[in-house]
Design a protein that fits this description.
Elements: E1 2-6, E2 12-20, E3 26-30, E4 33-39
Organism: Rhodobacter viridis
Protein name: Translation initiation factor 2
């Protein structure tokens, strides 16, 4: 499943969901790299 996270103040990363951390952040994989950040909530139009 593709997920988007915010890493830092204005950088977002989109990748494949890997895991959820205890602090509410999630980990996504982009190629061979892992990134952790706050998930971007989906908005219904």
């Amino acid at each position: 499943m593709l997920r988007t996270i915010v890493v830092g103040s204005c950088v977002s990363v989109q990748g494949t969901f890997e895991s959820q951390l205890e602090n509410g952040k999630i980990v996504v994989r982009v190629g061979d790299r892992l990134f952790a950040g706050k998930p971007v909530m989906r908005q219904n139009a």
